[in-house]
Amino acid sequence: MDIKKIQFSYGDKPLIHELSTTIEKGKITTIIGPNGSGKSTLLNLIIKQLKPKEGQIAVDGKSITACSYKDIAKMMAIVHQHNTAPEDLTVERLIAYGRTPYQSFWSSKDEEEEKVVAWALKVTKLEGLAGKPISQLSGGERQRAWIAMALAQKTDILLLDEPTTYLDIFYQLEVLNLVRELNKTYGMTIVMVLHDINQAIQFSHNVIIMKHGKIVYTGNAIEGVTTERLQEVYGIQATIRWCDKNCCPYMVPIAI
Amino acid sequence: MKRRGSAFLIISTLLVIMIVVAISVGSVSVPLDQVIDSIFSGTGGSGGIVRDIRIPRVIMGVLVGANLAVAGVLLQGVMGNPLADPGITGISSGASVVVMLVMLYFPGASASIPFYGFIGSMVACMLIYLLAWKNGISAIRIILAGVAVNAMLGGVTSMISILNSENLTGVLSWLNGNLGKKGWSEVRMLVIYTVIGLVLTIPLSKSCNLLALGDKNAKSLGYSPNVLRILISIVAVFLAGISTAYVGVIGFIGLVVPHIARMIMGTDHKVLIPFSALLGSTMLLLADTLGRTITAPYEIPVGIVMTIIGGPFFLYLLRKDQRRYGH
């Protein structure tokens, strides 16, 4: 995915300045950065929830500016940060909404539906909860259900906007393990926004570090997070340690 | 699924019973066997009453009840707001101002009154949407904008009434919501409009369901939420505006019915819409029959009966959902 010189502003307030980057196919890329750095905005621009003032975003050489919402929904799916659903909506029916891009305006069935919904339930380990209303699920289960809906879109690219926020550490790891599995087993390209820097290092191939609507670093996750960069981007003092268990560095914040 | 099936069966049965009761009850009560007789043969006597007065009135009630209830479901879906209904969104008052003007100043144009009603409701509804719009429509803003615009239109209605106090009798009984005094030609036209409007809701039920997942999800599943909103609103305004043009302002049915229907059927619009239509017909017939009989020989217009029943219900909803919709 190629992003070329995109600009975006809310009213007069510019949020993204001449941003260019490339997101590698088949890899997990995580966008990190302080609050208001434009992480979620970038994610929403990639999937055309927001339209850039200038610049181009292309997937496999095809510009998304010219694509309809429906075409985009077949290319990439997103799990939004805040989701609401009617109280009585069951997991199964929620997942079936993921098939919408493949259905006509008036019908809500397609040939693949049953097969794909069953697959999405299995991948997210929700088979036992298929008939349960969303409102009765735990936070972690609910997040998995929304991921399952996105999976039912059968796209090569999956975007996630802060998928672990509001979850306790167990469910955070569960969601991130699921994301990793989707990448490994099904070769999905993952782009997500995370707040936790250590999780970003641990679970991503690449990171995009943002500040004030600009990219400070893009590339290998392990190499990207350094004490100097944490000082520059977040304004914190931190040290980087190495964890033997998962062969991965982690940062320990010390002071501001 | 089974529960929903039996709910449909029960409401259909209730509607049939209500239709029969509404035909036989009134200032002249007609026994059941004569009701059936007169449909197929009789003219004059009680047969004439049934054929020329009661049956058109009952059909009007069935159609208008269904239309207003379905319009309510659609508007609540569009705004993600359970307090929206044809009254609050200005559809009724917009239609009534325009229809009143046409009735009083262009009596020759009475054949195209439904069209003018539709235009009037469209304009008022758009005005309230625009006033209430700010990064989406919030429950409170729509009610405030609705109160303001409805008060203004109500003022216009009163002003026109005062200026035309000599020839107001016909207009007044229409304004309060009245199913009576409708001929077969009007009934036939409303049947056509109703069929068109209700058939259009079939493909829209999916759009309503998509909007319930939030704008962001509707968009990332391939549809522009605002385009869906406009399509759904046009059908809702059509159903309610046309009905208001024929029978006047009948409030609250579009509010009360969808809520009861949702409690019974859940939130899936594929079943919610048809069920609301049946429930709306039944409830409006009940209200009209009560209005005709309770204070006989005086007749209370059905619009007034619905206001008396619906007002407290509205307050109940406001209290019950305060935590969810207060902001």
UniProtKB/TrEMBL annotation, chain A:
SUPFAM superfamilies: P-loop containing nucleoside triphosphate hydrolases. InterPro entries: AAA+_ATPase, ABC_transporter-like_ATP-bd, ABC_transporter-like_CS, P-loop_NTPase, Siderophore_ABC-ATPase. It is found in: Cell membrane. GO terms for cellular component: plasma membrane. Keywords: ATP-binding, Cell membrane, Ion transport, Iron, Iron transport, Membrane, Nucleotide-binding, Transport. Residues 1-237 form the ABC transporter domain. GO terms for molecular function: ATP binding; ATP hydrolysis activity. SMART domains: AAA. Its main location: membrane. It is a peripheral membrane protein. The keyword Isomerase does not apply. One of its GO terms (biological process) is iron ion transport. The keyword Ion transport applies. This is Iron complex transport system ATP-binding protein. It comes from Anaerosporobacter mobilis DSM 15930. The lineage of its organism: Bacteria, Bacillati, Bacillota, Clostridia, Lachnospirales.
UniProtKB/TrEMBL annotation, chain B:
It is found in: Cell membrane. Pfam families: FecCD. InterPro entries: ABC_BtuC-like (IPR037294), ABC_transptr_permease_BtuC (IPR000522). The keyword Transmembrane applies. GO terms for biological process: siderophore-iron import into cell. The chain crosses the membrane at residues 7-28, 55-75, 87-107, 113-132, 139-163, 183-202, 300-318. One of its GO terms (molecular function) is transmembrane transporter activity. Keywords: Cell membrane, Iron, Membrane, Transmembrane, Transmembrane helix, Transport. One of its GO terms (cellular component) is plasma membrane. It is a multi-pass membrane protein. It comes from the Bacteria. Belongs to the binding-protein-dependent transport system permease family. FecCD subfamily. Part of the binding-protein-dependent transport system for heme-iron. Responsible for the translocation of the substrate across the membrane. This is Probable heme-iron transport system permease protein IsdF.
